[in-house]
């Protein structure tokens, strides 16, 4: 796990000390009891010191249905025409050496060839002082992160996207920005209470679907994306 992941986890646990900890039998029994007594997701989140998304996911895994504080497009409806989903993920920094993060326009290193030669959903992040304060981002998908996709940005050919982003990145660097690269790690996908096992991203259809979902999500969050 990357240093960036541990740093994010540390920040999450400030607000939710039990985040990502294993659920115990006692926890499950108490959750069922409190939920049956009418406790809201917000109240249960405070009681268990876990994120609301984790509470909703656990309630569904225990066989209950809740629409409490759930966006309309994520509601569970057993009508055969809609899917209630719970998608949990994190971004992990790409490293050029052990414990050393990669930044554009550094070349592909032997360490990267050994550790990132796989299909991926990735994102470039542009920031100055803190990677938690991202100014711009670009989300993409590839059948091979290193060296194939990364070298497309470093040494662009006729691809309009490669050329455009290469030029944009060069300007950002001149302006004092850092440009980091991250790879998506999927922690859980639940569809209508069914855990979807997605141990890799070899399926191009799955990659494009998740890429499109993330682009829409971050645009709604207000992040400025360089995707056209």
Keywords:
228 residues; alpha+beta; Arc Repressor Mutant, subunit A; GIY-YIG endonuclease; five-stranded antiparallel beta sheet; two-stranded antiparallel ribbon; 8 helices
Short description:
With 228 residues, the chain is of the alpha+beta class.
Name the overall outline: elongated
Number of separate helices = 8
What is the third-level CATH name, the topology of the largest domain? GIY-YIG endonuclease
Proportion in helices: 40-55%
Structural class: alpha+beta
Largest sheet: 5 strands, antiparallel
* Overall mean pLDDT: 85
CATH-derived architecture of the largest domain: 3-Layer(aba) Sandwich
Q: Alpha-carbon distance between the termini? A: 31 Å
Number of strands: 7
Count up the domains. 2
Helix and strand succession? HHHHEEEHEEHHEEH
Question: Could you please describe the fold and organization of this structure?
Answer:
- This protein is an alpha+beta fold and 228 residues long.
- It has two domains: 3-70, Arc Repressor Mutant, subunit A, CATH 1.10.10; 88-221, GIY-YIG endonuclease (3-Layer(aba) Sandwich).
- The protein is 40% helix and 20% strand.
- The chain has helices spanning 3-15, 25-36, 41-48, 52-61, 110-115, 145-154, 160-174, 204-221; strands at residues 85-93, 95-97, 100-101, 120-127, 136-142, 178-191, 194-195.
- The strands form two sheets. Strands 1, 4, 5, 6 and 7 form a five-stranded antiparallel beta sheet that branches.
- Mean pLDDT is 85; it is low at 69-79.
């Amino acid at each position: 796990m990357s240093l960036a992941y541990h740093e994010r986890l540390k920040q999450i646990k400030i607000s939710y000390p039990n985040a990502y900890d294993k659920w115990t039998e006692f926890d499950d029994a108490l959750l069922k009891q409190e939920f049956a007594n009418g406790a809201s997701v917000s109240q249960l989140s405070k009681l268990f010191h876990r994120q609301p998304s984790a509470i909703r996911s656990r309630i569904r895994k225990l066989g209950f249905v809740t629409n409490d504080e759930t966006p309309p497009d994520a509601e569970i409806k057993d009508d055969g025409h809609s899917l209630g989903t719970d998608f949990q993920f994190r971004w992990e920094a790409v490293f050029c050496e052990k414990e050393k993060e990669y930044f554009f326009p550094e070349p592909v290193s032997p360490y990267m060839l050994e550790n990132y030669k796989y299909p991926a959903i990735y994102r470039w992040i542009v920031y100055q002082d803190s990677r938690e304060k991202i100014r711009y981002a670009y989300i993409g998908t590839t059948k091979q992160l290193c060296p194939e996709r990364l070298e497309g940005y470093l040494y662009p050919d006729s691809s309009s996207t490669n050329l455009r982003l290469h030029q944009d990145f060069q300007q950002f660097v001149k302006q004092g920005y850092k440009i980091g690269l991250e790879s998506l790690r999927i922690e859980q996908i639940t569809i209508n209470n069914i855990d979807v096992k997605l141990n890799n991203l070899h399926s191009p259809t799955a990659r494009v679907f998740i890429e499109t979902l993330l682009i829409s999500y971050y645009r709604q969050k207000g992040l400025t994306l360089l995707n056209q």
